[in-house]
Amino acid sequence: MSITIILCIVIGLVSYQSFERPELFHKLKHFPLYENRHKEYYRWITSIFVHGDYSHLFINVFVLWQIGSRVEGRFLIEFGEAGKIYYVLLFFLSGLFANLPTYLQYKDSGGFSSVGASGAVAGVLMPYILFWPWEWFLFPPLPGFLIGIGY
C-alpha cells in the first residue's frame, strides 16, 4: 500500500475521531499559545490530522490522493527506496513549516488556532506541478502550472 493512501486513511480516521470527540480535537489542533506556554510542540504535526469539518477533510484528502501517489512514485524513481523517506519528510516538514509563521505570530495570544493538512498537501502539490506542469487536474480542471500560479 502506498504511503499516500496510508496518510489519507490516517487523516480520515483521526479527523473522524476528532469530530466525535471534541476534547481530542482541542488536544491535537495547532494552538500557538499552548505550544509556547506548555511546550506542546507536537501540535505542529498532530494538527495535520484534524480538520474543521467534513468538507475541509474531503478537499485535503482528495487533493492528496489525486497528486500524492504520483509524487511518491516519482520520488521512488528519482531516489530509490530513500524516496519513501523523502516523501514522508516532504509531507511532514511541509505541515510543520506551514504552522511555524502562525506560531511565531500568535505564541503569546490565545486568539488563534488552526487545523488541517493544507500546508502538508501544498508541500506535495509543488513538486507535482514541477514534475507535470501540463497535467490537468480532475478538480479544478486546469493544467498544473495554472493551479500553481493560482495557489
Describe the protein.
- It is a single chain.
- 72% of the residues lie in helices and 0% in strands.
- The chain has helices spanning 3-20, 22-28, 32-38, 43-46, 54-79, 82-106, 118-131, 144-150.
- Helix 3 (32-38) packs across helix 6 and helix 7 packs across helix 8.
- The protein is globular.
Instruction: Give the CA-based shape.
Output: globular
**Contiguous helical run count:** 8
Strand content: under 5%
Q: State Rg.
A: 16 Å
Poorly predicted runs of 5 or more residues: none
Question: How many beta strands in the DSSP annotation?
Answer: 0
Q: H/E order of the elements?
A: HHHHHHHH
End-to-end gap = 29 Å
| Helix proportion range | over 70%
SS content category: mainly alpha
- Largest sheet descriptor: none
Mean pLDDT: 95
Please specify the SSE layout and strand pairing.
Elements (H helix, E strand, L loop, with lengths): L2 H18 L1 H7 L3 H7 L4 H4 L7 H26 L2 H25 L11 H14 L12 H7 L1
Which terms would index this structure?
151 residues, mainly alpha, 8 helices, 72% helix
Give a short synopsis of this structure.
The protein is mainly alpha-helical and 151 residues long. It contains 8 helices and no strands. It has helices at 3-20, 22-28, 32-38, 43-46, 54-79, 82-106, 118-131, 144-150.
